[in-house]
Amino acid sequence: MTTITATDRPPASALGRILNVARLHVVTPWTAIGLPWLILGVILLGNLGIWALILANVAEEDKAKVSEGFGYSGSSMFIFVYMMVVAVQAISVTFPFALGYGVTRRDYYLGTGVTFIGLAAMYSTGLTILAALEEATNGWGLNGSMFSTFYYGEAWYERLFIFFAAFLFFFSVGMAAASIWVRWKANGLVAFFIGLGVLILGGGALITYTASWVAVGTFFANAGLVGSFAWSLVISAIAAVGGFFVLRRATPKG
Amino acid sequence: MDESRPLFVQLAEQIENDIIAGVMPEEAQVPSINEFAAFYRINPATALKGVNSLVDEGALYKKRGIGMFVATGAQAQLKTKRRDKFAAEFVTPLLTEAAKLGITSEQLADMIRKAGK
Amino acid sequence: MTAVIEVAGLTKRFGGVTAVDDATFRVEENKIYGLLGRNGAGKTTIMQLLTGQDFATSGSIEVFGQSPVENASVLQRVSFIKESQRYPDDFRAKHVFTSAPWFFSHWDQDFADQLIADFRVPVNRRIKKMSRGQVSAIGVIVGLASRAPLTFFDEPYLGLDAVARQIFYDRLLADYAEHPRTVVLSTHLIDEVSNLLEHVLVIDEGRIIIDEDAETLRGSATNVAGTRSAVDQFVGSREVLHRDSIGGLATATVLGLTAGERADAVSAGLELAPVSLQQLIIRRTNTSEKEFEVSA
Prior knowledge:
Chain A is an all-alpha fold and 254 residues long. Helix content of chain A is 78%, strand content 0%. Chain A is built from eight helices and no strands. Chain A is globular, with a radius of gyration of 22 Å. Chain C contains eleven helices and 13 strands.
């Protein structure tokens, strides 16, 4: 590390300030990077173990049918939802700390957003590579499919996009939830989830009442997998922007 | 440094004591403001005030870019000043206390003579 | 003198509680200010308002001539060190010292290293596992090494033992002498810091009750002691901050005695004793409390 002696460096530019916040998030990379990969690895090993066990106890002629069932493994979905946890943790812990360093809420939010976009890019790239590896090895030699399930599309660029959109979605919702938590603590979060529940139930009721489930289904079918995830980006954007307006008036209480 | 009087007054007195005692000889450089501040653990602005009061009196003078020096004749000047205050500062309290205890002037003079030997 | 901070009519209410009540004052450049007051008087709230960490209910704040709220150009020149600072869970001390320089462009690493040694901070240990004194030391080191043109210390030395506190005061004084900047120290331990201060702001129940040069304040009051009648006679109609008596003896704390008046007191058989800054402030704080009780 180069020693910085008594300096009068010029203060950081707007971009510099935002990147400094991003750096702050990964000073200790374990929570945001190490742990999720570890979890993914554990899930993968768990799956391999289960598949191997099943195949070992099944008659030869049934193996093909059983392997088909492996294609429906949703175990990798957990890692997406986990990003919400990562986001909430990151923000609730670094927000008061960053304010202590004289960071404005705007720079903090933007810097955190940049961090999450970077993490989403990293994870989606990693998963795409794992999916390719999985196909190349015929499902890790066990015909399993965790990363290359049809949920995520077929071509590698489809997968990359879907992974990226999914990660962004959960990061954004996490940012919104974290902002609510930081500003209004437990009460706020409870109110948020109750409100969300009402919204979802209300939406479902409305669709049922107007008998438009078919229309909804057709919409997503026409959009296709990639299209549907593209629509999720709209929700992600709304969540991210909403989170900012909540954080703008948040204070670092004790 | 105590709480009885402003700190800058106490610092000035301390420097005066050193000049009178000859510890800071005439034309010698005295410590810098920052050194005084650090030594006595007081704010540099306070130290500056104390030193400046001596500059105003003419006991110290500043050489630009170098520092503060004891003026020629400062020792004699300060001794004179102290002598003027001696009566009010030491003699009057002495007499007041002596009066409280019923010690006469002659007994007082006697004590002084004996102690001075 | 340039004002680094100008506050006018600043008020902050939390629900029914008025934490800061119509405060108006200015902080001049490159002086060490003491923001003194009892626990819960409003010291921390004022600092949070001045650093944009909390929002005023009414009134105006200008730091470096601008509002500090969400203002990066102002906040980059400000460092706010507080006792209650929480660090990210898996942070080790070294992570703080690695990240702080990113946010403070005047950071002096050599100075920081020297302070780390002085305060004996174990840089590789998790902050969660450190003693309160070590965690406080981290904050103090960041505040000192950041060399921010405006530095707030909100009682971050409460966790430090007496030896470490003395180290802090000494380092602060020495560094301030070499690299002048505006420092605001808040504390309820007045006597310890009183000699470091150039200007004193005392806040009591949200109101600024004293805003004066420290040297003027020091020695501005005297304790007069003697027989009750002698004390009463001498005091006359002077402003008395405090009265006390035991048996036939009485003491009174009076403001501003000239040399002549002091001589009069002595010849009247009264004893004069100094009043420290802490005692002075305690007396004047209690006065306003009594006023509050009377008007309630």
